[in-house]
């Protein structure tokens, strides 16, 4: 079993707690995976992932306890491009932190016994704030672990952007770059971006 979260208008959420969620009524889209056609509705891996509805007083967050055999995960940043559908993997094969905005595709009716109203206090502790936070931490951790200069190069890129906005003057020496401005002076080694290879990410 796995947990997936969806935000519904409060009245609809109350009905779901009593009557469940019928796939035939809730269907949002159809997709094909390995030659098999599925109908589905969508949910989230974390209650804070739905940034448009999370915190909206007109909506309630409900937790679904699902059989992962009837769930897929896709990269929402790619939707509706065809690459979205190529990104789909069975829930059991998804590695947390792979997508910035993972979207869960639920391909079954959900019985009321598997639906619970999600309050502000989580009954099951979650180890990360939301999926985007976990994704960014994973990317940064991978790069920092593989490339010792990553932190330097990341900050260099940030200050170079500020220099392009006119907030700093960029001064180069033989092996360093200094950003001089009213907010202070910041010095970094010249980056060697050609060293980065992301195929293992």
What does this structure look like?
- The chain has 201 residues and is α+β, with helices and mostly antiparallel strands.
- The protein folds into 2 domains: 2-132; 147-195, no CATH class.
- Helices cover 25% and strands 30% of the residues.
- The protein is built from 5 helices and 11 strands; from the N terminus they run βααββββαβββααβββ.
- The chain has helices at 10-19, 23-26, 82-87, 131-146, 150-164; strands at 2-9, 29-33, 36-44, 59-66, 71-75, 89-90, 102-106, 115-117, 169-172, 176-181, 184-189.
- A 5-stranded antiparallel sheet has the order 2-3-7-5-6. A 3-stranded antiparallel sheet has the order 1-4-8. A 3-stranded antiparallel sheet has the order 9-10-11, with helices on one face.
- The two termini are 28 Å apart.
- The model has no long low-confidence stretch (mean pLDDT 94).
Short description:
This protein has 201 residues and is α+β, with helices and mostly antiparallel strands. The chain has helices spanning 10-19, 23-26, 82-87, 131-146, 150-164; strands at 2-9, 29-33, 36-44, 59-66, 71-75, 89-90, 102-106, 115-117, 169-172, 176-181, 184-189. It is elongated and about 70 Å long.
Per-chain topology:
Elements (H helix, E strand, L loop, with lengths): L1 E8 H10 L3 H4 L2 E5 L2 E9 L14 E8 L4 E5 L6 H6 L1 E2 L11 E5 L8 E3 L13 H16 L3 H15 L4 E4 L3 E6 L2 E6 L12
Antiparallel strand pairs: 1-4, 2-3, 3-7, 4-8, 5-6, 5-7, 9-10, 10-11
């Amino acid at each position: 079993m796995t947990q997936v979260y969806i935000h519904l208008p409060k009245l609809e959420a109350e009905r779901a707690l009593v009557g469940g969620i019928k796939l035939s009524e809730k269907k949002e889209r159809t997709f094909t995976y390995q030659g098999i056609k599925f109908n589905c509705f969508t949910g989230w891996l974390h209650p804070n992932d739905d940034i448009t509805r999370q915190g909206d007083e007109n909506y309630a967050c409900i937790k679904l306890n699902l059989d992962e055999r009837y769930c897929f995960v896709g990269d929402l940043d790619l939707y509706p491009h065809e690459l979205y559908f190529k990104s789909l993997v069975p829930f059991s094969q998804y590695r947390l932190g792979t997508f910035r905005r993972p979207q869960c595709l639920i391909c079954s009716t959900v019985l009321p016994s598997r639906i619970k109203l999600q309050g502000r206090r989580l009954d099951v502790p979650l180890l990360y704030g939301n999926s985007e936070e976990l994704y960014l931490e994973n990317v940064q951790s991978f790069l920092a672990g593989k490339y010792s200069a990553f932190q330097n190069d990341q900050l260099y890129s940030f200050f170079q952007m500020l220099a392009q906005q006119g907030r700093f003057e960029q001064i180069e020496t033989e092996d360093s770059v200094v950003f001089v401005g009213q907010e202070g002076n910041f010095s970094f080694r010249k980056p060697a971006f050609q060293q980065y290879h992301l195929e293992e990410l």
